[in-house]
């Protein structure tokens, strides 16, 4: 066998230059064809293994089902997003919240145990509602409850905990029997005590994220900005609650 290999090498060497060129071209063409074929085969394999559209449809049906269950199951964790603050915001701030809401809903969608989102104190004529509808495709059909009633008109006050950065009470655990309220407020020039005072006036308990306590432990005795910035605020809190539920 080895000899016949050597022989063919020698006979190749003996070929006229034009024949050698022809052969080289044929070899090159053959390699290109093989490369194309293996690419095609790989694509066929991939298409067979991951039928993209079907997978997308499948995962969509899963998150839809989970969100529906969260809406129907009385025991699921509830979170109210208080839209009654809409009159305190200008158009730019409403737009910022609309983008925040996109992430907030997205986080809930991706969660294996989503919460029942209640959008409360809604005024459908408000700039906030309009911006949310514009920036979140299908907003009005989202799997959540939208209500013109405020959180304290929908639920027992004793069950409500208004999350506000100015509360004296650190939130150390998530109690699934409580309903947490987060304001949709985006105030570029952070105004202290806005939500704390309105919660107090209604007689609702409040809590703040324990940023101070946890950050002190990690980084020593510094003071930290308690207010989650406008583009973190509500959706970060929902992340925390989702993580705990
Ligand atoms: C941008 S903050 C608005 C701060 C506003 N000055 C106020 O009085 O609430 C938007 C909302 O995110 C929530 N939030 C932000 N930081 C928080 C914290 N550290 N603890 C609890 N809730 C917080 C509150 O519900 C707050 O109303």
From TrEMBL:
<dbReference type="GO" id="GO:0002939">
    <property type="term" value="P:tRNA N1-guanine methylation"/>
</dbReference>
<feature type="domain" description="SAM-dependent MTase TRM10-type">
    <location>
        <begin position="63"/>
        <end position="245"/>
    </location>
</feature>
<feature type="compositionally biased region" description="Basic residues">
    <location>
        <begin position="14"/>
        <end position="46"/>
    </location>
</feature>
<keyword id="KW-0808">Transferase</keyword>
<dbReference type="GO" id="GO:0005654">
    <property type="term" value="C:nucleoplasm"/>
</dbReference>
<keyword id="KW-0949">S-adenosyl-L-methionine</keyword>
<dbReference type="InterPro" id="IPR007356">
    <property type="entry name" value="tRNA_m1G_MeTrfase_euk"/>
</dbReference>
<feature type="compositionally biased region" description="Basic and acidic residues">
    <location>
        <begin position="1"/>
        <end position="12"/>
    </location>
</feature>
<protein>
    <submittedName>
        <fullName>DgyrCDS743</fullName>
    </submittedName>
</protein>
<keyword id="KW-0489">Methyltransferase</keyword>
<dbReference type="InterPro" id="IPR028564">
    <property type="entry name" value="MT_TRM10-typ"/>
</dbReference>
<dbReference type="InterPro" id="IPR038459">
    <property type="entry name" value="MT_TRM10-typ_sf"/>
</dbReference>
<dbReference type="GO" id="GO:0008168">
    <property type="term" value="F:methyltransferase activity"/>
</dbReference>
<dbReference type="GO" id="GO:0000049">
    <property type="term" value="F:tRNA binding"/>
</dbReference>
<feature type="region of interest" description="Disordered">
    <location>
        <begin position="1"/>
        <end position="50"/>
    </location>
</feature>
């Amino acid at each position: 066998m080895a000899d016949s290999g050597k022989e063919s090498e020698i006979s190749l060497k003996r070929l006229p230059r034009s024949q050698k060129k022809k052969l080289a071209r044929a070899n090159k063409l053959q390699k290109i064809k093989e490369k194309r074929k293996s690419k095609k085969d790989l694509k066929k394999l991939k298409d067979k293994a991951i039928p993209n559209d079907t997978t997308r449809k499948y995962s969509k049906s899963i998150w839809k089902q989970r969100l529906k269950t969260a809406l129907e199951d009385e025991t699921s964790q509830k979170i109210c997003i208080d839209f009654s603050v809409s009159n305190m915001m200008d158009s730019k701030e409403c737009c910022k919240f609309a983008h925040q809401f996109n992430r907030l809903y997205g986080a809930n969608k991706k969660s294996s145990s989503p919460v029942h989102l209640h959008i409360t104190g809604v005024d459908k004529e408000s700039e906030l509602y309009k911006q949310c509808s514009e920036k979140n495709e299908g907003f009005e059909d989202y799997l959540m409850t939208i209500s013109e009633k405020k959180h304290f008109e929908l639920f027992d006050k004793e069950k409500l905990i208004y999350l506000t950065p100015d509360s004296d009470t650190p939130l150390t655990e998530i109690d699934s029997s409580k309903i947490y309220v987060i304001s949709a407020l985006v105030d570029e020039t952070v105004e202290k005590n806005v939500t704390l005072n309105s919660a107090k006036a209604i007689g609702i308990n409040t809590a703040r994220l324990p940023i101070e306590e946890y950050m002190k432990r990690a980084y020593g005795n510094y003071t930290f900005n308690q207010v989650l910035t406008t583009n973190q605020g509500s959706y970060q809190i929902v992340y925390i609650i989702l993580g705990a539920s």
